[in-house]
Amino acid sequence: MIPEIGQFALVLALSLAVCQAVLPLIGAHRGDVAMMNVGRSAAAGQFVFVAVAFGCLTWSFIANDFSVLYVANHSQLSLPTIYRVSAVWGAHEGSLLLWIFILSAWTIAVARFSSGLPAAFAARVIGVLGLLSIGFLLFALLTSNPFDRLFPAPGDGGDLNPLLQDPGLAIHPPLLYVGYVGFSVAFAFAIAAMISGDLDQRWAKWTRPWTTVAWMFLTLGIALGSWWAYYELGWGGWWFWDAVENASFMPWLIGTALIHSLAVTEKRGLFKSWTLLLAITAFSLSLLGTFLVRSGIIVSVHAFATDPERGRFILAFLAIVVIGALILYAWRAPSLDSDVGFAPLSRETFLLLNNVLLVVATTLVLIGTLSPLVVELATGGKISIGPPWFNVAFLVPMIPLVILLGMGMHTAWRTQASKPWLNTFKIPAIIAIILGVVIPLFVYGRISILLVVGCAAAAWIVASSLIPIIRSVRREKGTAGITRSALGMTIAHLGMGSFVLGATVVSAFGVESDRALQPGESIEVAGFEFHMKSLGNAQGPNFSAIEAEIEIRDNGEYVATVRPQKRQYLVQRNLMTEAGIHPGMDKDLFVALGDQLGDGAWSVRVQYKPLIRFIWLGALIMAFGGLIAVSDRRYRPGSKTSSTAPAEPAKAAEAPA
Amino acid sequence: MNRYVWPLVAVGVLLIFLSIGLKDRDIRALPSPFIGKPAPQFELPTLKNPEVTIGSKNLAGDYAIVNVWATWCVQCRKEHGFLLDLAASKTIPIYGINWRDSRVEAIRWLDDLGDPYVASAYDADGRVGIDWGVYGAPETFLVDPEGTVIYKHLGPLDSYVWQREFASRMASGGARP
Amino acid sequence: MKRFLVLLAIMFASSSILAIDTDVAFDDPELQARYERLISEVRCVQCQNNSIKDSNVLLASDLRREIRRLLAEGKTDAEVADFLVARYGEFALYRPRMAGKTLALWIAPFLLVLLGGFALFRVLKHRMSLPIDDDTKNEGQPE
Fold first, then answer.
1. Does the pTM of the predicted model rise above 0.90?
2. Considering only CB atoms, which chain B residues are within 8 Å of A323?
3. Which CATH architecture has domain B32-173?
């Protein structure tokens, strides 16, 4: 009964989505307030029914209802309850339902917080979100129904892929989707502006917080995925440039460019059509990502079970959405050109550089991801593009970007006098060069160009980010002069610095060693001794394991004991490697079991990973910076600066810079 | 007006490629670099009689099939019936490469199920398999009288594949054995 | 104990996600480093998307063995690449070669940055010629 309720709820949600899309859009066109207001109520209704459907599917999992095909395929009696819940989004149909749920959640958030927006604009935004909901609900109902039944119902299920039976991977999709789907809000804002033809600085200000929040969640989702791959996949890497990883990274890069471009549009009314294009592109890349993962067009360990029919549906949907948006763009963009200028040395220039480099980076990732497919279709030959290429290609725009990062925020809008500007950088430059040499040479004992550049860049970012904060605190004798927006920016940039430091150091100084070990034997890596004390059995709720007890010593002094396991899950019979990790902010010591060799020995991979936690810490800090920026006064409903009255000349009432 | 249309053009091209990519194709299939090139040189002891060697020299002079198989390969068992029929029809000599297998098991397999091969080479360490670019059994190569590889098929053979891919190429290529 | 052995046997028989190559390392640390780098850049053609360093299927360990042999014979990295490409095509290399069709891939980053720089230059030139002062709102906002 419950699955049928769920299915019916989806159908009702679809009909509400139709109301939500059609009526407000027509109403906005006609100026009919009643029709426009339908948007909010329809959105609320859609959310309720989607939530019901999601609840029904979750219930089916918790109650082990194997008469539901999706549950039978992806759950098991012995599956711990918490993973029964995360199994809901563990495969295609359920994760699609999660997507729909998050989209409707974003929609009611927009409905709830849009009181400051002009009625017609808000109606159009909600209408466009409704159109997107229609597309996804149709996709689910027509091709990927999670509530399909299976008769006769089996006594037990096929189990959730053991890789997914992990807390990190349980939250990873929801976080990621909140980000992915969140870019649809910026997209809807862009479409609404193009329909009405009205695009000004206020539009940029409205769009910014929504984009920043989506970006925040995407940052966290990607970081979580990277961290999970590190501790769960057993090879100690944190990024493999796999097609699906790239699919989430490209929207992130464009989202970052979008946030920066919105800053210019909000401040000076410039780059309007460019910002529009970025908003369209960010969400289009989200859709492209969904397509790549679910269509079976690209081979990847991450890809969902594939089906060309589903691929065709998504491709058609992608085509309609993107081409529709770009037609609007081609129509409206030419009239958006503004007549103001800026000097070559100005913040506008730096933000433009930021955008150019991020777009180049995104294009390179796109080329690397899709070229094998294009080459195969065009010539029949197959090529591979892997980390060796990506790592080099990505650095080409990124190195200049991180250097410029330290400079842009000190540059004034419109025009910047060069002498005082250069002066600002004296201290950070000195710090950067010193640390750039000291860290590799004296802390880790080795030096090379790339190392110096990486460490110097990180130091440069941190030092130059802190300067305006320190100055402001000194001047105001307190933190009064710092807006949350500026603080958020600083924090996010600091996060970037942490990331650059971690990535540079671990790539350059990480050590990896494979050895055969028997109980009683030791191996030495990076000055640490790893001693295998014993090898025995371990048991979990739905797996059996071989567990090694490895004692780590530093010059004889006890450091830690880690217990890497080789698990065999009872149903799907996959072998999983659980690494034993001794974490630390300064380094991780990582041990994983490989294979059993003859005579009781096991192959063991030991890794020394200095500063690897700085990578994910950096992402956390970046996301936190976004949070702070969004909490800025001027985004709060009801504040003077969020009023929708026509643009007034700058008043002293506004906070001084 | 012009430059605002470029995104549309770029996206259009991308969408066309993606839709072509969705067409029926085996994303795991790897085209063999040997098509149109001389068959890789090899010489290995035969499966049943280690004193006798067999190799690329045996392939010359006539069309020949080289079939890579193993007892641990489930799909090889599937195609075995067809190979026996093909051998019985005397259309073309079938040479086997027994890939990474146990000699005892392989001989027993052939004794139990029948031996369609003129002879099987015993590739114990997989070196010859690698030389032929083998990555998954069964794989079957069609070699022409000059010793050039004309076609490679990944997966089990059946009469449909035989007609469509092998027989047709033999017919258009020239002399029949 | 019996269960333990059975478990070990099952594990030994099935393929695992993590492969570890425990052949004796080369005496020459540079050669060993070359070997480790090479095997991380060669694709396990049979697998979804793994290098032969991280995969333990039969083909992966066979390919590792071949690469060891080639390195021991004194072959250069390019010759190892040629060996693999002759047998499995360009698909086998995660590092596209800097020749032929894949050369464009290595030029692309620099080309794109140049293009971006060119576009930037044109925008700057245009904006330089326009009036800088204007009465846009948000005069007081720091960013």
1. yes
2. 8, 11-12, 15
3. 3-Layer(aba) Sandwich (3.40)
